[in-house]
Amino acid sequence: xxxxxxxxxxxxxxxxxxxxxxxxxxxxxxxxxxxxxxxxxxxxxxxxxxxxxxxxxxxxxxxxxxxxxxxxxxxxxxxxxxxxxxxxxxxxxxxxxxxxxxxxxxxxxxxxxxxxxxxxxxxxxxxxxxxxxxxxxxxxxxxxxxxxxxxxxxxxxxxxxxxxxxxxxxxxxxxxxxxxxxxxxxxxxxxxxxxxxxxxxxxxxxxxxxxxxxxxxxxxxxxxxxxxxxxxxxxxxxxxxxxxxxxxxxxxxxxxxxxxxxxxxxxxxxxxxxxxxxxxxxxxxxxxxxxxxxxxxxxxxxxxxxxxxxxxxxxxxxxxxxxxxxxxxxxxxxxxxxxxxxxxxxxx
Length: 348
Ligand code: KG4
Ligand code: ZN
Hints:
Bound molecules: 5'-O-[(R)-(carboxyoxy)(hydroxy)phosphoryl]adenosine, zinc ion
Structural class: alpha/beta
CATH class of the largest domain: Alpha Beta
Oligomer: single chain
């Protein structure tokens, strides 16, 4: 079965085709970063309008790439949430209209399930069960994953997400958007020990996170630097602050992920979501997990941030697991801007 998948929950339009037997056949992506950069963050209405412009050209691109035509497609999947309501509605409308016109089933997919299963797009594929560290712009969660659709929340952020901590800190430092890669690049030029920032909840005996205190610490440090240098903070100082911020985020994420492995006794850790592209985080997890004789799995770097491949793939995994109901041709649909992963199968 060949599934055409759409992702449009935030600032990336992604389209892909995944075969339930052969895996990913092709994918195309348009990032809106350049458009939103000017505003320092995602402007939802602009995001929606751009998804409209990109959805069909990207569909043609994927069909060309794979040498397939619409008549070869067996189902259409789309991100139904969580995300920006208008942006989600664009992908959902395109996917649902195509499915209706071609008389195909339409499969609503939970965005985080897409991220969570995306490491299975790479080789070697982790077997179930595993611990998943889901770190994106909107979510920071540790899950126990026993199979497709079997997700148990172990811990999550009480306030900001890890990606948000990167993005907001970068903004405070004037490093632009998206903040994760910008801050991480700047951090490479700095010394992480020069500015020691708080590691919120590092020693709490649970698997929860908190990042808003770190953001406040960065704000106060920036104010201090601006006063000291008369608003012209030298790059060396910014680089040290960026390195200190990244080190604090990586320390907390790694410590909690390792704690989750110890508490569950599982030997496989899967890392997914945009922050999973962060190299210091990847290296730290690999070193620390090795001490527990545990393996760490990542999605291909290009599929860490939002993309259509993970959405078509999650639908394919549900199809292979026999988790798709019969009534997927019902023409009415909705999207869920807020949606718990534990209810990922609830939109059929
Ligand atoms: O998963 P994603 O593409 O979108 C959401 O579903 O939120 O994640 C985007 C987040 C942003 O906060 C971005 O700054 C962060 O992932 N990110 C990174 C890196 N690349 C993307 N954070 C740290 N280091 C990176 N290399
Ligand atoms: Zn995402």
